[in-house]
Write a structure and sequence with these properties.
This protein is α+β, with helices and mostly antiparallel strands. 56% of the residues lie in helices and 17% in strands. α2 packs antiparallel against α12.
Amino acid sequence: MSFAATLATALRALRANALRTILAMLGIIIGVAAVIVMVSISQGAGREIDRFINTLGTNLITITPRSVDDGPRQGGEEGRIPFTDRDVESLRDRVDGVRAVSGMLRGRSTVVGIGVNWPTSLVGTDEAYLEVRDWPLIEGRNITASDVRAGAKVALVGQTVATELFGGATPIDAAIRVDGVPFRIVGLLGEKGQSSWGTDNDDVLIVPITTARSRLLGGHEIVPNPVDTVLAEALDGLPQGYVEDRIADVLRDRRGVPPGGQDDFRVRNLTELISARTQTQRTLGILLAATAGVALIVGGIGIMNIMLVSVTERTREIGLRIAVGARPSDIRAQFLVEAICLCGIGGAIGVALGAAGSLGVASAAGWPGTIDLPVVVLALAASAGIGVLFGFFPAQRAAGLNPIDALRHE
């Protein structure tokens, strides 16, 4: 019997019991849809983490003060001694392996434009901040070293602040008031997007750190010229652990940490985020394998049961086919083709549902939705393989029937 004739016979047999055919395909549909959706979620989550890492800056190292476990002050905010401008200068001068170092202060302020008030995140920093954060300017200029030395009342604005205050108009050279202090906008930042904590990176106003201390955020009771956080960008190709060790050595010397004593600062890089990304994808991969594997196995068992029922119901038909000259291989091929058709059609439906589900999840999560062709091909190949695997036993059983017994079957 030709393949075309075998396929036509298989499709007729499946149409004869449409409801049973649909129920048999459900497991395959669910399994293939699960493959598509879970792979899409895994890839989407990975891309989102990568995007967040990129918003922080390339090779970024973050240095923050922390309290030490020393008597009643342990763990308290009052135990955190800020850095100073001299600390930042020492890191620039004494640490090899860093491209740029920037100190910063953070706070909240209200910006007033022409008849518009907008509360935003305030960053006081220096001329190296944009380089460390890998943050481009799309218009205007950066804060300069002379702006920092003079405590100039100039500002850079993020996309969100510019939109809220000026709509579509250029903000460059516009006059604003920040907590009542007049400033002039000299630069417009490129778009950074949302952070992993759900905050808007573009809702920011950046001013010279000296201006932030003297006019907006204030200083520190004990430490002159305080710096809340220091950001450093390591050179490409260097182990970040090497740069971190050099930073720690300089800060221990600057802050008087005794040998073997507890550091009153913390040095971090993106390793934790990258590790979280890897762990997330590994976990989602395991979930993918478990969900899809169980669903496909269940679907395969369901198809095998349906095919066994079909063999029993069509025993006389099989006997007649053998009696008129059909070979066991023809009978085996017919039932295998039926099983493969069941899984192939179910797989195609599963791909459609999985694609729709993936795009829905991506839309809800706010990341771009993509369907990879290799994943679709793999899912369809897996469904066809399930058809061969679980259809072989019923097909072999049909091919092995004794024609005399089959014709006597009631």
